[in-house]
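Follow-up to my earlier ticket, as requested here are the two runs.
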Amino acid sequence: MRDAVPAEGLRATFRNQTLRDIGRDVLDISRLGLKNRRKLNREGFDETHYLSPLEEVVARGTTSAEDMVRAFNTRWGGSIEPVFLEYAY
């Protein structure tokens, strides 16, 4: 896997499953565990909202690194400079 993941990202396979599929399963387990903990914030929300960024990655099927490489090769025109504006927080 250490050779496949850098090249294939979430499309890499492990035991006949993609990492994306494994990610979905892990997030399902995590969501259930966090929901069952019943630790609520002041607004009454449980901790499952912390999974949202990871759920977006799995739903999209690409990592931020893959998105950056694609942007570098297309709309950024081979320049790394835009990364500092688009990914700053």
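Run two:
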Amino acid sequence: MAVVKITVKKNGPFRVEAPEGAIELVDADGTPYDLTGKTAFSLCRCGGSVTKPFCDGTHSKIGFQAAELAVKKADNLG
């Protein structure tokens, strides 16, 4: 069985690492993305990438803060 590693980057994307062919990524219509030759890629979480679902670094330009950080800050306000 192939080992798939997904790393949540702080205030950034989901980094996906797996042997080539171990992951199938499909859009909302079920059409697969071509991952030929890719053993690692990053998925956008900020919503600002122009290459969705892949990260293009926009998160760092727009000051994206991941939900887990926002929850911790909100808890400290009460």
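The only thing I checked on run two: Residues 31 and 54 are 15 Å apart (CA to CA). Let me know what else you need.
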